[in-house]
């Protein structure tokens, strides 16, 4: 059964949907533009270096980010007509990509903290336990959320089918097939819990980074080590990229929690559209721009040391190899 409507009351919804699709395109352009800006660094610092876990994580995050942008454009662009099956597959891809990217970024944070704590196996074990607890909980909540969609507690509007209770109907609004969804019941709470768990992890990682950085700066000032400048600069590079990444994540989290409010999420007002648009752009930037730069920033600093002097030997032996047995060029 088809439901065809030209009711003017739907126009604000259609307009909001078009507006959101423009934000999605803009977010994809930002990701592609950042890749163009850093492709030279990528070739020099990633492709031409010895392969490691960080190399793989960088390439996966960077190029999944580009693919993710294309998938989002296809899923939310009203002018692109998709079947029910394709629309639902894209929705699953988008949701699970967010979970996988959060886990990969967490692994990068663990590697950075492991280096900063001079290869402490106790700290590594502690970080891995916390990381696994948070991510397993997020996966469980994600599965519960998807089961909620399957059993119809979601009000799902796919490209051609609207689920009203358990009755599928084809929906064409003013001649436009839309691809969108909203939710009911405990789904908002589940999504909020996922974001809060990830926030706890990020705050925890930031606190550990700040604490060890302050400790090192105090030790270097007290002991007056001749290599203090190199070590201090290394920690400044790590902290600068980490703080910028965390600030972006905090902004995304705040926008998401605000948007999950029924008053905001069910509104088609200009303010709600702008909020949702900024959330989409910042999410792309946090995952697919600042995420890869967590690795590039350290490798770029390492490359400058190698090019400028033989301080590379000092940095590797004192900071990363003597106690950690890993090199910044291959690991962080």
What would your notes on this structure say?
By secondary structure, the chain is mostly helical. The chain has ten helices and five strands, in the order E-H-H-H-H-E-E-E-E-H-H-H-H-H-H. It has helices at 11-47, 53-76, 84-116, 121-150, 187-223, 228-259, 262-265, 270-288, 290-308, 311-321; strands spanning 2-5, 154-157, 161-164, 167-173, 180-183. The strands form two sheets. The chain has a three-stranded mixed beta sheet, with no helix packed on it.
Brief description of this entry?
The protein has ten helices and five strands.
List the helices and strands and how they pair.
Blueprint: E1 2-5, H1 11-47, H2 53-76, H3 84-116, H4 121-150, E2 154-157, E3 161-164, E4 167-173, E5 180-183, H5 187-223, H6 228-259, H7 262-265, H8 270-288, H9 290-308, H10 311-321
Parallel strand pairs: 1-4
Antiparallel strand pairs: 2-5, 3-4
The share of residues in helices is: over 70%
Shape: globular
Structural class: mainly alpha
Major sheet details: 3 strands, mixed
Question: What is the straight-line distance between the termini?
Answer: 56 Å
The low-confidence parts are: 150-170, 311-330
* Rg calc: 23 Å
Number of strands: 5
- Average pLDDT confidence is 76
- Main sheet: strand order: 1-4-3
Helices and strands, in order, run as EHHHHEEEEHHHHHH
Percent of residues in beta strands: 5-15%
**Total DSSP helices:** 10
């Amino acid at each position: 059964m088809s439901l065809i409507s030209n009711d003017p009351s739907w126009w604000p919804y259609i307009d909001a949907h078009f507006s959101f699709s423009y934000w999605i395109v803009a977010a994809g352009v930002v990701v592609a533009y950042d890749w163009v800006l850093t492709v030279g660094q990528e070739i020099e610092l990633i492709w031409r270096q010895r392969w490691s876990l960080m190399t793989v994580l960088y390439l996966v995050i960077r190029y999944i980010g580009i693919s993710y942008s294309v998938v989002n454009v296809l899923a939310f662009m009203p002018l692109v007509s998709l079947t029910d099956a394709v629309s639902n597959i894209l929705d699953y891809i988008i949701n699970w990509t967010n979970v996988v990217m959060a886990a990969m970024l967490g692994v990068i944070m663990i590697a950075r903290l492991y280096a900063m704590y001079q290869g402490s196996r106790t700290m590594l074990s502690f970080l891995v336990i916390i990381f696994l607890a948070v991510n397993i909980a997020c996966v469980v909540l994600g599965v519960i959320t998807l089961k909620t969609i399957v059993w119809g507690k979601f009000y799902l509007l796919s490209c051609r089918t609207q689920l009203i209770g358990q009755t599928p109907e084809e929906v064409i609004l003013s001649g436009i097939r839309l691809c969108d969804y909203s939710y009911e019941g405990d789904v908002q709470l589940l999504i909020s819990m996922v974001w809060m768990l990830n926030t706890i992890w990020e705050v925890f990682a930031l606190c550990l980074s700040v604490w060890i950085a302050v400790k090192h700066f105090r030790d270097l000032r007290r002991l007056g080590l001749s290599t203090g400048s190199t070590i201090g600069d290394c920690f400044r590079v790590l902290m600068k990229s980490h703080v910028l990444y965390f600030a972006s994540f905090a902004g995304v989290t705040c926008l998401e929690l605000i948007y999950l409010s029924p008053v905001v999420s069910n509104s088609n007002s200009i303010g709600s559209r702008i909020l949702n648009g900024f959330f989409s752009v910042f999410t792309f930037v946090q995952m697919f721009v600042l995420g890869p730069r967590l690795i590039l920033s350290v490798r770029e600093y390492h490359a400058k040391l190698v090019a400028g002097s033989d301080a590379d030997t000092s940095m590797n032996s004192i900071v990363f190899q003597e106690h950690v047995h890993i090199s910044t060029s291959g690991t962080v």
